[in-house]
Amino acid sequence: MIIAEFNESIKLAYDSIKSNKLRSFLAALGVVIGISFVILMGWVLQGLDKTMEDSINLMGQDMIYLDKWDWAGGHTNKKVDQRKDISYSQAKELSKRMTQSVMAFPQAWKWNNQIKYKNEKFSGLIVQGTTYENGLIPEGTVTDGRFFTQMDDQFGSKVVVLGSKAKETIFPNEDAIGKTIDVNGHKLLVIGVVKKQGTMMMDFVDTKVYIPLSAFLQIYNDQRRRSFTVVMKAGDQTNLDNVREEAKGLMREIRNLKPGEDEDFSLNETKNFQAFVDNLRIYVWGVGIGMTILSFIVGIIGIMNIMFVSVAERTKEIGIRKAIGAKNRSILMQFIVESAFLCFVGAMMAYIICSIFIFALATILPKFVPQTSFLSPVMPYEFLIIASVVSIFVGILAGFIPALRAAKLDPVDALRYE
């Protein structure tokens, strides 16, 4: 009996929407906007999660980077600026004394370099002086050629490995392997190209140019004006605490920090970026939920008004149905189902519109803004389920009072209604 009433209510709801297309569309517009915000918010959060996962894979879940700077911005710039640079001798000493890590090695950076090839100059690239061990971590995975060897490190070989974007910048239409580039007046032989791996949070990675640290120190003879980084691989996530504590204790000793004195260095790892992403998620949730609630309030008011109008227009019909035996429950179900069906149609419209918008945005935008390549062009099917459930709930909420009013109508008064 209830199933038959439900099916009949759906048929009546469909007929009502079909006969009042414009009115139904305007009533559902608030729901369309609200559901669109829910879908787009979920899509952005999914993209942030993908970016976080890619950044973790790039850094390595078992990697710790000891640096003067806090990469996730955990300290004020003024406080960090007052820190002393980590000298080359300190970085070498720490690398040498580490026992808990699988490997530990120093590296240095030179930002915004100008690199020459033939008669052309290329700016905005990062030169990174590192060791052969950099080729053993995720960041050093090459697609063409090879990474430099321990012998290259030892003898300061004038060789270079290019990041993917650096390669495309200098050699857009030719093979880079075997070519010679000019870095700060020194000729370097290209021996490898690292795979594309930059993310929204670490898009600079692909602009790197890797050279042996010993060669780097010859090319940029400015050790006293430079801060070095120590890269440590724990080997396993369960060993991170041991590596972290050993590195902290040794560096305090090397830097001659007194007991109770704050560290003048930072230990950077994937959890630093997790905190950053979590804060970003909170902002997205806050804005998204706020706009969604506002849209749903407008939608509920609009649908409630439309349902009151629908009840008024069909008062005589309600009286006839009650006169021939329809129960209050049937009338209540009829208008609640109609309201929920109207919202459901609005949700499907929102899903289709958002799917087209997301596909177009995720396909076109990365061509102009490469940092947005993390956006997925495909709408996850679970968003359809969420949109359906939320829309039906909103429909029931918006239609309950008008439906209750219709169910309580006196059949005699309803039949007299003009």
Blueprint of the fold:
Layout: H1 2-19, H2 21-59, E1 63-67, H3 77-81, H4 88-97, E2 103-117, E3 120-130, E4 142-145, H5 150-155, E5 159-162, H6 164-170, E6 180-183, E7 186-194, E8 208-212, H7 213-219, E9 229-233, H8 240-254, E10 266-268, H9 270-313, H10 315-323, H11 328-368, H12 381-407, H13 411-416
Parallel strand pairs: 3-8, 5-7
Antiparallel strand pairs: 1-9, 1-10, 2-3, 2-6, 2-9, 4-7, 5-8, 6-7
Helix pairs in contact: 1-11, 2-9, 2-11, 2-12, 4-8, 9-11, 9-12, 11-12
Overall, the morphology is: elongated
How many strands in all? 10
Radius of gyration: 32 Å
What is the average per-residue confidence, as pLDDT, rounded to a whole number?
A: 83
Percentage beta strand? 15-25%
Specify the helix fraction band.
Answer: 55-70%
How are the strands of the biggest sheet laid out side by side?
2-3-8-5-7-6
Q: Can you characterise this structure?
A:
- The protein has 418 residues and is α+β, with helices and mostly antiparallel strands.
- 56% of the residues lie in helices and 16% in strands.
- It folds into two domains: 2-56 and 274-416, no CATH class; 84-264, no CATH class.
- The protein contains 13 helices and ten strands.
- The radius of gyration is 32 Å and the shape is elongated.
